[in-house]
Amino acid sequence: MKNLTKSMMVVALATIAGITPVINSCVHQPFVVPDSLLAGDPTICFDRDILPIFQSSCAKSGCHNAASHEEGYVLDSYAGILKKGIVKGNPSASKIYQSIIGAPGVDRMPQVGPSLPDASIQLIKRWIAAGATNDTSACSDNCDTTNYAYNSAIKPMMQKYCAGCHYTSPKNFNTYTDIKEQAVNGNLIPCIEHASGFAPMPESGSKFTDCQITVVKKWVAAGAQEN
Ligand code: HEC
Questions:
Q1: Residue 208 · residue 217 · CB < 8 Å
Q2: Which residues of 74-112 are buried (b: 16+ CB within 10 A; e: fewer)?
Q3: 63: nearest Cα among 207, 194, 203
Q4: What pLDDT is attached to residue 2?
Q5: Which pLDDT band holds residue 85 (cuts at 50, 70, 90)?
Q6: Nearest residue to 12 (alpha-carbon basis) of 4, 1, 21, 22
Q7: Which of ligand 1's atoms lies nearest the C-alpha of 204?
Q8: How close is the Cα of 154 to the center of ligand 1, in Å?
Q9: pLDDT for position 20
Q10: Of 17, 58, 80, 182, which residue is the least packed, with the fewest Cβ within 10 Å?
Q11: CA-CA distances (angstroms) from residue 175 to 53, 155, 213?
């Protein structure tokens, strides 16, 4: 009787204080991912938008490629990325997402070199939130050969496909100066064209499409400007 009175007092006081007491607040509902989220984000194409980030920043030799696979993570394919690191619909529960944002208690990835650019982190987050699908319907080639300006075409391309490995001088592909240097010294184009006698680039990723190669060539031909 005494206890009942006491709890009624607490309820009354909390109500006076403007707090509505929640009865049974400790029952946890399992988190159910809504189907709408798992349907995928129609603007994200895994092969075009997500895989190259992993290939350039994580699947390099000594990290998470098929030969080294640190801690069993092989991050060079859809199946490998999904296997251990992703909880569909839930970025913050996904080990891969926790590691790229450097969440407390998780090793920050990539372990060597700078963190992923914010745009890549946001894209991966959106992709996981939308169900981490391998939807090919979004995979139209959105490359445009009429846009070969440095800031809108070349820089994002180099950041996404190349700077995961090349982040130190004299080949820091986050910087205009170093990209231009490789363009004018005659290495850049043969490397992306996989010409014989040159290291085929991006090293652990798919070859650029004809359109992407054309964009780089046009930029170089027009003077490799910082435009
Ligand atoms: C997975 C890692 C990795 C990625 C991704 C990568 N590279 Fe490389 N790249 C290397 C390595 C390793 C070398 C050889 C050592 C060096 O020269 O730094 C190299 C060398 C080069 C060279 C010098 C070749 C020469 O003969 O001197 C160029 C130019 C180059 N890469 C351009 C690129 C471009 C452009 C991209 C993106 C399209 C790219 N790389 C993506 C690892 C990578």
A1: no
A2: bbbebebbbeebbbbbbbeebbbbbbbbeeeeeeebbee
A3: 203
A4: 47
A5: confident
A6: 21
A7: 1
A8: 16
A9: 46
A10: 17
A11: 18, 8, 20
Give every CB contact of residue 48 below 8 A, 6+ residues apart in sequence.
Answer: 139, 141, 142
How many residues are recorded in the chain? 227
| Token pair belonging to 76 | 């060079």
Cα–Cα distance, 156 to 146 (Å, whole number): 16
Residue nearest to atom 10 of ligand 1 (CA): 203
Q: Is a pLDDT exceeding 70 seen at residue 201? A: yes
pLDDT higher than threshold 50 for residue 15: no
Write down the pLDDT at residue 11. Answer: 43
- 185-200 per-position pLDDT tens digit: 999 999 999 999 999 9
Average pLDDT of span 121-138: 90
Residue 102 has pLDDT above 90, yes or no: yes
Distance from the CA of 203 to the center of ligand 1, in angstroms?
Answer: 6
Verify whether ligand 1 is closer than 6 Å to residue 192 (CB atom): yes
Is-contact 109 58, C-beta < 8 A?
Answer: yes
**In this structure, are residues 100 and 124 in contact, taking their beta carbons and an 8 Å threshold?**
yes
Nearest-angstrom CA–CA distance, 44 and 120: 12
CA–CA–CA angle 192, 195, 199 (5° rounding): 65
